[in-house]
Amino acid sequence: MLNIESLHKSFRENVILHNLTFTVNPGEIIGLVGENGAGKSTLLHILATISKPSEGSISLNDLSYTTERKKIRKLIGYVPQDIAVWEDLTVEENMVFFEKLSWVNQTKEELRNLCQEMKLYKWKEPVNTLSGGMKRKLNLAISLIHHPKVLLLDEPTVGIDLKSRKEIGTYLQKQAVENELMIIYTSHDMDEINELCNRVICIGKDPFYKDMLLNSGKEIISF
Ligand SMILES: Nc1ncnc2c1ncn2[C@@H]1O[C@H](COP(=O)(O)OP(=O)(O)OP(=O)(O)O)[C@@H](O)[C@H]1O
């Protein structure tokens, strides 16, 4: 379980996150919504151990983010907003490169299966010949190489077609259930949030997103 308690984050006098307390259970997909600048990426950075909170505590399966950062990092998969893959390498070369950087050993066959499960078949193609949707799938596949327990996705489907979106969504739902993965997912697409997520966290001052979800039947947590 991921446990976030009384989390605050400020940049100098600018308070971005104020008193966030929530938990994420194994197998759950949590939507994270809010207007531009509300602090979604800031929260994901903190959960990915890229930055530290100003106050508050976080633990993952009873490991403290303060004292066990190295162990925590092995359990986190993070997909940033910007695609971060090697454009001149093939899909295969990217997967092998990131496998070498990870803490697990996977055969090429296993890496290829991981790509195929999310319907990314262009194994021998250089990344710079792939569509945006394919690149996003590769980014996601890379984040799963080390079998994380928590997957943090910052707008992973932005700018991609509906079919690829659905394929990614179906894959994530399967991963959450089968591997008890905890997923936090940011998106501005409320249909996608409605379809994919078990619960939704709304952050920021603008009530727009919360209002959009009022009749969705979803549990909404707002800060
Ligand atoms: N390193 C930093 N130093 C100072 N301010 C920062 C820093 N990082 C983020 N901010 C500020 O924190 C606020 C929240 O930014 P953040 O990127 O988390 O928002 P967001 O909800 O992810 O927005 P978007 O939907 O546009 O991606 C913004 O006002 C941003 O300028």
CATH fold title of the domain at 2-82 and 148-222: Rossmann fold
Order of helices and strands: EEEHEEHEHHHEHEHEHE
* Cα-based radius of gyration, to the nearest Å: 17 Å
Overall morphology: globular
* Strand arrangement, major sheet: 6-7-8-3-9-10
User: Which homologous superfamily in CATH is the superfamily of the domain at 2-82 and 148-222?
Assistant: P-loop containing nucleotide triphosphate hydrolases
Name of the CATH architecture of the domain at 2-82 and 148-222: 3-Layer(aba) Sandwich
Count the DSSP helices: 8
Supply the key terms.
8 helices, binds adenosine-5'-triphosphate, globular, Rossmann fold, 223 residues, 6-stranded parallel beta sheet, 10 strands, alpha/beta, 4-stranded antiparallel beta sheet
Write up this protein.
The protein is an alpha/beta fold and 223 residues long. The protein has a domain at 2-82 and 148-222: P-loop containing nucleotide triphosphate hydrolases (Rossmann fold, 3-Layer(aba) Sandwich), CATH 3.40.50. 35% of the residues lie in helices and 25% in strands. It has eight helices and ten strands. The protein has helices spanning 40-47, 69-74, 91-101, 108-117, 132-143, 162-179, 190-196, 208-213, and strands spanning 2-11, 14-24, 29-33, 55-60, 63-64, 76-79, 150-154, 182-186, 199-202, 219-222. The chain has a six-stranded parallel beta sheet with strand order 6-7-8-3-9-10, with helices on both faces. Strands 2-1-4-5 form a four-stranded antiparallel beta sheet. Strand 1 (2-11) and strand 2 (14-24) form a beta hairpin. The longest helix is centred in the last third of the chain and has 18 residues, at 162-179. The mean pLDDT is 92. Bound molecules: adenosine-5'-triphosphate. The site of adenosine-5'-triphosphate has 10 residues, from helix 1. Adenosine-5'-triphosphate binds next to helix 1. InterPro entries: AAA+_ATPase, ABC_transporter-like_ATP-bd, ABC_transporter-like_CS, P-loop_NTPase. One of its GO terms (molecular function) is ATP binding. Pfam families: ABC_tran (PF00005). Residues 2-222 form the ABC transporter domain. This is ATP-binding cassette domain-containing protein.
